Amino acid sequence: MTATTIEAPRSPSRPAKSRGVNWEKWGWIYMRASGVVLIVLIFGHLFFNLMLGDGISAIDFGFVGGKLADPFWQWWDVAMLWLALIHGGNGMRTLINDYATLRMTRGVLKTAVLAAVVVLIVLGTLVVFTFDPCPAGQPADLLPALCAAR
């Protein structure tokens, strides 16, 4: 009897060539890291808004205006916005790669997801950093009551 060596199934006959950055690996790592950071950001957001102070009954235009006037909360909200949108966009990209069979369809869908993510990030960031509850030059009867204190 002679011993025969059988190669393990699906093992490559030669090692795979390195083709630069492994985007799938970094996307996978990003999803895990951003998920952990998002849990902290979201639960911090919910705790501050719902548990501290008067709870949900205190959330109104003035509360949001006050929060968006504080640079700490501006950056908190922008970090949450960016991480959530990129996390969701990357998840959608993965779903498109898994279920869209035609190359053209995958390209169109991924372009649409990218466009939506970019537009929402730009608009959301602009809102957070340019929000002014009391714009100058507006009639006093159209402004919220908190603006009378200025």
Keywords:
150 residues, mainly alpha, 3 helical TM bundles of succinate and fumarate reductases, 4 helices
Can you give a write-up of this model?
With 150 residues, this protein is mostly helical. It has one domain (25-149): Up-down Bundle (3 helical TM bundles of succinate and fumarate reductases), CATH 1.20.1300. Helix content is 63%, strand content 0%. The chain contains four helices and no strands. The protein has helices spanning 23-51, 61-68, 71-99, 103-130. α1 (23-51) crosses α3.
Strand and helix layout:
Layout: H1 23-51, H2 61-68, H3 71-99, H4 103-130
Annotation, overall tally of beta strands:
0
Task: Please name the CATH topology.
Answer: 3 helical TM bundles of succinate and fumarate reductases
Structural class determined from secondary elements: mainly alpha
- The overall average pLDDT, rounded, is 86
CATH C-level class is Mainly Alpha
Describe the structure concisely.
The chain has about 150 residues and is an all-alpha fold.
